[in-house]
Design goal:
Blueprint lengths: L1 E3 L2 H6 L1 H9 L10 H11 L5 E8 L2 E12 L3 E5 L11 E2 L4 H16 L3 E7 L5 H7 L4 E13 L3 H6 L3 H16 L3 E4 L5 H15 L12 H16 L3 E8 L2 E11 L2 E9 L9 H16 L3 E6 L3 H4 L4 E10 L5 H24 L3 H18 L1
Parallel strand pairs: 4-6, 11-12
Antiparallel strand pairs: 1-2, 2-3, 3-4, 3-5, 6-13, 7-12, 7-13, 8-9, 9-10, 10-11
Length: about 375
């Protein structure tokens, strides 16, 4: 086991990292080197990088991409942060148990006085093996809710709906056919300009409706441009533009792994809503791509927006795995209690005020007061 704290060494790991990603069947696009390293450049704090690496005969067989944070206790958290829907470790499938045990031992030493807080672990993620091999106290919590559909053509997805819902959706599909919308997959060299267009449309789409503040920040745009340019070139991302009379009216990003298509972000001009149901347009395109490429899951990623339920998706709940050294069991218990309290407060405040900004800031203030009390 080795511990890497050097961002330059992290940059140089790209070929071996992505080779390991390809040997880890549970890996999602968010574990690609391009996504994680780009996130570090935009969001990382100097001096806090912690990559726990496991090698066998010189080959990388395990990796935990982490960063030291203080919330308010010292914690090791996954790279990727709040803009990443699935976090995980990487383990070589040919020696997953052995690599998980070695990674657990190495992370146990590396964590020292910090609690390990692995958020947004998709069910079946390799972090669950790490959890099984952890030699100290641990806790398992629920995290974000994701919605998933099978990777089927849109006609098959419509057939899963109620009779009334299917009838309405077929009408929307016919209207789409008459709208004259053309779609184009953006080549890698055009990704930077296309991301700028996507974010401009995303801002227009959410104008006066409570856009996620992070999506307005330059660091988010810089991260997307870096990550998607590399991932589009490697076949791990796909950016599509939708045009009417040559004008880009919508754009969306899919993140890809061998078994999964994830709809990450889209933007649409408000004028397009008068001519087409944008959700149906995007889902028809995304489901067709999933079916054509043999990917079994079309993930709508985090969030339970009402329009997603029209398609009768499966509800999948991410895991939050908390690990600590035996001496830190009181800190683990405190951290766990704080996370649970924050989740309860978030649900309570969301029910009172649906505005994302309002409930988030109120939750933060309430939790801060709880921390002070403890």
């Amino acid at each position: 086991m080795t511990l890497c704290r050097d961002p330059a060494r992290f940059a140089g790991l790209a070929p071996r990292w992505d080779d390991l990603h390809g040997r880890c069947g549970a890996a999602t696009p968010f574990q690609r080197h391009a996504w994680l390293y780009s996130w570090w450049l935009s969001y990382g704090v100097p001096g806090r990088l912690r990559l726990v690496l496991v090698h066998r005969a010189g080959e990388l067989v395990g990796a935990a991409p982490l960063m030291l944070a203080f919330r308010p206790l010292p914690v090791l958290v996954p790279l990727g942060g709040a803009i990443t829907d699935f976090c995980d470790v990487l383990l070589d499938d040919s020696c997953a148990e052995e690599a998980a045990a070695a990674l657990a031992r190495g992370l146990h030493r590396a964590a020292r006085t910090a609690v390990v807080d692995l958020r947004e672990v998709r069910p079946g993620g390799r972090a669950e093996l790490l959890y099984d091999h952890w030699p100290g106290p641990r806790r398992r919590l629920t995290d974000s809710v994701c919605l998933e559909l099978p990777g089927l053509p849109v006609g098959d997805l419509v057939a899963r709906m109620s009779a009334a819902g299917a009838r309405r959706t077929r009408g929307k599909l016919r209207r789409l056919d008459r709208a004259g919308i053309e779609h184009r997959v953006v080549p890698g060299r055009e990704v930077p300009a296309a991301v700028a267009t996507l974010l401009r449309l995303h801002v227009l789409q959410w104008r006066d409706r409570g856009i996620t503040p992070e999506h307005l920040r330059p660091r988010f745009a810089e991260h997307l441009i870096r990550a998607l340019t590399a991932m589009a070139g490697d076949g791990a991302a796909r950016l599509t533009e939708y045009r009417i009379d040559g004008r880009v009216m919508a754009a969306n990003v899919l993140l890809l792994s061998p078994g999964l298509v994830g709809g990450y972000l889209y933007g649409a001009h408000p004028d397009l809503r008068a001519r087409a149901d944008i959700a149906v347009m995007l889902l028809r395109h995304d489901s067709s791509y999933a079916a054509e490429t043999g990917r079994g899951v079309l993930s709508l990623l985090r969030g339970t927006e009402p329009y997603k339920f029209h398609w009768r998706p499966e509800t999948v709940v991410n895991r939050r795995l908390l690990l600590a050294h035996p001496a830190l069991e009181p800190a683990l218990r405190l951290h766990t209690d704080l996370r649970r309290a924050r989740s309860r407060l978030a649900e309570e405040l969301r029910g009172r005020d649906p505005s994302p900004d309002a409930w988030w800031h109120r939750t933060y203030r309430r939790c801060a007061s709880l921390v002070g009390a403890w």
